[in-house]
Amino acid sequence: MPSRMMMRTTAVFAFFLSLIFTGLSNASQNSSKMEEYSHSGVQNKLPDLRKYPSGTPRKKAFLNIVVPVIDAHNQHIMQDRKWLLSRHETNKWSVQDIKRLQRICSDYKMTCSSPKQINWNVLLRRVDIIPTHFVATQAAAESGWGASELAQKNKNLFGMRCASCGKEKGKVKGYSVYNTVDDSIVAYMKNMNTHRAYESLRLSRAKQRTEQAPLNTSKLIDNLKGYSERGAGYNRYLHQVFDGNKELISQVQNYE
Questions:
Q1: How many whole angstroms separate alpha carbon 32 and alpha carbon 38?
Q2: By CB count within 10 A, which of 170, 211, 234, 252 is most buried?
């Protein structure tokens, strides 16, 4: 028969084994919960980021969702821009070319009955990307890294207003309501590229294009006017968000 000492030793050993397996089980469960917010390509759903620890973990979770969507739309915009640049000096337009041109003009709130009657400078100022760092910075600033009530209930990441919107139950009144993150980002980018209030931003971007240099987010922030009643204070705040998180945005963007 085993001695009492051996029995105690066996019991202690079994106890420690149970602790180890319990810890492994908990770690596995925690890992499973984290997967909801991990980087896994383009997503349209906005999880409840309030459940995620504030600071870098929540920021990464938010950026993992919005950055791929922003990049995807910028790629689409750039395809249209390159096509316009390749076509605007030609005299030969097929029926398909004219249909594509009219579709682009319609998307950017311009009337283009024929290629010869287009203000090409205005069109090319509108059909251009908004740097991912700029969009992600403003989304983070406006939505509290996706944790605000407006972001969670309306899927509205940019504080975009609409007097007749949000009247349905569970929504924030007076603000646009979107079904997905994708819809919110598309609406924002079209607004920035077409609304007269942001002409100074588009002019700054066009000037940078003539210098044949990569678009500079800091300069664009300097030239953002009319977005907030806070005026210059809002621009300073965006600079703080951008400067404090540009490396994190780059990490997520390069990980795609």
A1: 10
A2: 252
pTM value? 0.81
Q: How many CA atoms lie within 13 Å of 212's alpha carbon, on the beta-carbon side?
A: 0
Identify the bridge partners of residue 175 per DSSP, sorted by sequence position.
Answer: 161
For residue 63, give Cα distances in angstroms to 49, 109, 239, 253: 11, 30, 17, 9
What are 142-145's contacts with CB under 8 Å, separation 24+? 143/62, 145/49, 145/58, 145/59, 145/62
Report d(CA 256, CA 253) in Å as an integer. 6
Point out the residues of the chain with pLDDT beneath 50. Answer: 1-41
Chain segment 170-190, per-residue pLDDT in tens = 999 999 999 999 999 999 999
Contact 66, 139 (CB under 8 A): yes
